[in-house]
Structures are given as C-alpha cells and as structure tokens.
Specification:
The structure holds 2 protein chains of 2 kinds.
Chain A (H helix, E strand, L loop, with lengths): L13 E7 L2 H11 L4 H4 L1 H6 L9 H15 L5 E10 L8 E12 L4 E9 L5 E11 L1
Chain B lengths: L2 H16 L20 H15 L5 H6 L3 H12 L1
Helix pairs in contact in B: 1-2, 1-4
C-alpha cells in the first residue's frame, strides 16, 4: 500500500493497477447490494439486449476507484470526499481493466487532491471516466 | 474589488455548491442556516472561493471563520 503525504504529491503524478472481472465479482456485488437486474445476472437476457454476455454492474467497475485512492494514490492517508463518474462503455466478465488516476489539482489549504480517473479495458477502450476529490489526512 | 462584488460572487458560489438559487446570504449567515452546509461542503466552498477569487487560504483562517461576513472580509483582505 502506498502512503503518500500531501507534500509528496505533485500535479501530473499518476498511479494505476489492473483487475480482471470475474463471475464471482458480479455475484458478490448482487449479494451485497440486492441488485438482481437480469442484465447483470441472466446471460440470455443480456444477449437478447445486444450484449455479448452478462454486463458488469457500473457501480462494480466504479468500486475500483476506492482501491485506486485507498491503496495507490494517495494510499493509506486517503479520505474520499466525492466521486463523479460516467460509464462510457459496457464491461463484461473476463475484461481486464486498467484503473488509472492522475492528479490534476492540489489544494493546499484543505490538503485535497483532485484526481482525474479513467478505466480502460484490454482493448484500450474507456469504460469509465470521472474525477475524485480526496483528502490527504 | 468592492465588498458588494465579493458578496455577489460568493452568493453565486453558494448557489453552485449547494445547487440552490434560493439561498440568500447575509453577513450573519452560518452553517446552521443552510441545511447542507456540512464539513464536506465547507471544503468545497473553500476550493471554489480560491478558484473564483484567485486567493489562497490557510487552515487556521478557515477554522476561525464564524459566518459569511467574516468570509467576505477575509476574501476582500486578500484581493484588495
């Protein structure tokens, strides 16, 4: 786990990691949230809607932003204040996602960083775009 | 910059941060008067003010602010 102090951070710094989406992740997410929508849980239903298979929950994809902040940048001192996301393209089981965050602004008075976040799939296609406001505590 | 101008710009910041154009500020307005004015939005207000007025606050200044009037005066002292 990274442990950047506010003083260590610079605009332009970035961190990233990869994660592969598994059926177990979708099932666990359903168990936690109670979202039983068939688009995420019924292969035939999803295919009938024009998808190649079960579509990963957008909020599951977004959940990796928690890891990005809490483990990578700034890591241990992270306190996420706000997250804005757009789900640009569907994510499927087996997709290998690259989760990347880049510091675009630092606000010294409140020790906060603004992170531009992008998640891309194995084909380089953006599946999520957004930004985060994170306190360094 | 006049106090009135700072007050007007600050009001617009409040409208934007709280997404509520019915907010009417006075010098005496405090966090108790605006339902969503919590610690998160306090930070968002500070960040928005720094951008709008091109000023920098320090932590102590922010902690000592008692109401909107003091916020306006602090900004005014920085922008001149």
């Amino acid at each position: 786990m990274n442990n950047y102090k506010y003083e260590d951070l610079k605009v332009g710094m970035s961190e990233s990691f990869t994660v592969t989406i598994t059926p177990e992740m979708l099932d666990s997410f359903k168990g936690i949230t109670g979202d039983i929508n068939p688009l995420h849980n019924d292969e035939d239903f999803a295919k009938a809607k024009g998808h190649q298979g079960r579509v990963a929950y957008g909020m599951l994809t977004a959940s990796f932003l928690s890891t990005l902040a809490g483990v990578y940048i700034p890591g241990e001192r992270s306190l996420i204040q706000q997250v804005e996301t757009k789900f640009a393209n569907p994510v499927y089981i087996g997709d290998e996602l690259t989760v990347k965050g880049e510091i675009v602004e630092l606000v010294e008075s409140v020790q906060r960083l603004e992170l531009k976040v992008v998640i891309t799939n194995q084909n380089g296609k953006k599946v999520l775009r957004g930004k985060m406001g994170i306190l360094v505590v | 910059m006049t106090r009135e101008q700072v007050f007007k710009d600050l009001t617009e910041i409040f409208w934007d941060v709280f997404d509520d154009e019915d907010i009417e500020l006075t010098d005496e307005t405090t966090a108790d008067d605006i339902e969503d004015w919590d610690s998160l939005e306090q930070i968002n207000l500070v960040v928005a003010c720094e951008k709008k007025f091109n000023v920098k606050f320090d932590m102590k200044e922010i902690q000592n602010l008692k109401n909107v009037g003091e916020m306006v005066d602090t900004i005014l002292a920085k922008v001149g």
